[in-house]
Design a protein that fits this description.
Layout: E1 8-14, H1 19-30, E2 40-49, E3 59-67, E4 70-78, H2 81-113, E5 140-144, H3 153-163, E6 167-171, E7 178-183, E8 189-192, E9 207-209, H4 219-229, E10 233-237, E11 244-249, E12 255-259
Parallel strand pairs: 1-2, 5-12, 8-9
Antiparallel strand pairs: 2-3, 3-4, 6-7, 7-8, 10-11, 11-12
Helix pairs in contact: 1-2
């Protein structure tokens, strides 16, 4: 495959993948380097088909791009390999566009910091503590997660960094469960799950597993747990629909509630 002079591309196939499908994937991925100004140093595509007739989406496609030292990942599944390749292309395009936007914003913040300005995207050490609003005055502000499609923990960690968040609620592509990936004190990440069944053997980021399971609680009960535990955020499962949610302290002193995009 030929992309540009700085890009090394590896295509791996598992199961039955036709020559036409391989060529289609290579052509799609080769065009992605035009979306970013930074060089794409390495690219890997893994196309997999499964023989299990019980699988609704037996074709999967995984893409890994090294954009000047920053890993951009996507992993999708579909009914056909052609559809999986199209979904992979769309997912990678979305992430590369967000990566480019993030780099531009980072450059603007760096220029602004030279004159002592503070911006929302600054790192945790620059952020103010949340406003100590009295508990009886606090309201719950509901927001849907940015993660619309199922993804891997690696992809969730990547999105967390792009959005400069401390935690990220998403649907795990492997297990189909609502999970949360959050920053850990050692500079890596921690994955919170209901069943603790997701494999972390092949992740690129430094992701550990949270030994605690999210409690089943209503929003009011989650508020109590958040306050009693002295926590900045709480991942919990709402008993009405069995879906995961995250309650957290907003900087304005109110509570923020992140709910699944489909709820």
């Amino acid at each position: 495959m030929t992309a540009d002079a700085t890009t090394d591309v590896v295509l791996q196939c598992r199961g039955e993948v036709s020559a036409a499908e391989r060529e289609y994937a290579e052509t799609k991925i080769a065009r992605l380097s035009d979306l970013v100004s930074a060089p794409v140093l390495f690219a890997r595509i893994v196309l997999t088909t499964h023989d299990d007739p019980a699988r609704e989406r037996p074709a999967s496609a995984k893409g890994e791009l090294d954009v000047n030292g920053r890993l951009v990942l996507a992993h999708v599944a579909a009914a056909t390999m052609h559809e999986a390749i199209d979904l992979l292309d769309a997912r990678l395009r979305e992430r590369l566009e967000r990566f480019a936007h993030h780099q531009q914003s980072k450059a603007r913040r760096a220029r602004s910091s030279e004159v002592g300005q503070w911006h929302h995207g600054d790192r945790e050490t620059s952020r103010p503590a949340y406003f100590p609003r009295p508990v009886d005055e606090r309201e719950v502000v509901r927001t849907k997660t940015f993660a619309v499609d199922a993804m891997t923990p690696d992809e969730a960690a990547f999105d967390l960094e792009l959005l400069d968040h401390d935690f990220y609620l998403f649907v795990n592509l492997e297990t189909g469960e609502d999970n949360v990936v959050a920053r850990s004190p050692d500079g890596g990440y921690v994955l919170s799950e209901r069943s603790a069944t997701c494999s972390l053997d092949d992740v690129a980021a430094s992701i550990g597993r949270d030994d605690r399971r999210p409690p089943a609680a209503s929003t009011a009960e989650a508020v109590d747990l958040l306050e009693l535990g002295g926590l900045r955020h709480l991942f919990f499962v709402h008993p009405d629909d069995g879906r995961g949610r995250v309650l957290y302290h907003r900087y304005d002193g109110h509570y923020g509630l992140i709910v699944p995009a489909s709820s």
